[in-house]
Automatic annotation (TrEMBL):
Limits of the G-protein coupled receptors family 1 profile domain: 37-293
Subcellular location: Membrane
Pfam families assigned: 7tm_1 (PF00001)
Annotated organism of origin: Esox lucius
One GO molecular-function entry: G protein-coupled receptor activity
Keywords attached to this entry: Adaptive immunity, Disulfide bond, G-protein coupled receptor, Immunity, Membrane, Receptor, Transducer, Transmembrane, Transmembrane helix
Transmembrane region(s): 25-46, 58-75, 95-116, 136-158, 193-211, 232-250
InterPro entries named in the record: GP183-like (IPR047160), GPCR_Rhodpsn (IPR000276), GPCR_Rhodpsn_7TM (IPR017452)
Name assigned to this protein: G-protein coupled receptors family 1 profile domain-containing protein
PROSITE patterns per the UniProt record, alphabetical: G_PROTEIN_RECEP_F1_1, G_PROTEIN_RECEP_F1_2
Cellular component, GO annotation: membrane
Amino acid sequence: MNSSMAYETGNCSTRNDYQQYLYPAVYSLALALGLPGNLGALYVFIFKLRPRASSTVYVINLALADTSILCTLPFKIHYHLRSNDWAFGDVACRITGTLFFANIYISIAFMSCICVDRYVAVAHPHTYLRLRKSHYAVLVSALLWVTAGAAVLAFILVGPLDSGPNGGPSGRRSCFENFSKHEWDRRVAPCSLFSLIFGSLLPSAVILVCYPLVARRITLIRTNTARGALRVIYTILAITLFCFLPYHVVQFLHLLRRLEIIQHCPYANAIYDAQRVTIALVSLNSVLDPILYYFTTSHSLYNTESKVSYW
C-alpha cells in the first residue's frame, strides 16, 4: 500500500493515508456490533410486539435505515483497504455512496419522529390517544422514505460522478469524495445545501427543543410513561450529540471550504481531516441505536402488560 497518499484541496495538500486504517477499523466494529443489534431489533419489533404503536413503527424504520447503512460498509472497507481505490465501477459507487449518506439523514429524521412522539405522549396524552395508531406513523414514514428515495434516484440517474484521481498512483479512482469543482458545482453543492437544511438543521432542532420541553414536563408528571419517555429522549440526545452533531457541524464547514469561503490552508486541512473522522463517527450511530430500541421495547412490553392506555 502507498503510505504517502495526499489530497489536494485548492492550493493546499494534506495527507490522507490514515484513512486506510481508520475506516476499516471503525466500519468493521459497526458491522460486528450494529448488524446483529439491528437485525435482532427488526425481528422483535416486527414479529413479537403487538399491538404496534406509532413509536414502534418509527423504530422499525430507524432499524431499516441503520441496516441499509451497514450493508454499504463492506464495499467501503474494501475501498479504504485498497488505499481509497474504488474497484466496483461508477454505478456501484453512486448506489453505495447515496445509500450511505441518505440513510444518515433519514436516521436522524426518524429519531426526530420518535422524540416528537414521546413528547406528545407525555405532554398531551389525550391528543396522543388519537395519534398513537400506527397508520399515522406509517404515513409519515412513507413520506420520509419517498423523499429520500427521490433524492437518491435523482443523484444516481443524473449520470457518472466526476471524482477524479485520489492523489495516489495513476489509475486509482475515488468514490464519493474529492469531487472536481465542476462536479461539486453541478450536483454535489445543491444536494449538500438541501441536506444541511432539511436533513441536519431541522431534525437536530426538533431533538434539541423536545428534550428540554419533555424534561420540564416530567418534573410535574411522575409516571412510568414520563420516566420512560425521558430515558428514550436522553438516549436520542446522547446519540445526536456524539454521532450526528459533530458530523453536521463539520459538513457545514466543509461546504464553506468547497465554496472557497474558507481558503486558509491550515483551516482547510483541519476541516478535511475532521470531516473524515466525523464520517467514521456517524457510522457508529448504528451501534448505539440498539440501546434506544431496548428502552423502547422495554417500555412497550411494560405498557402491554400493565394495560396502559397511552405511550
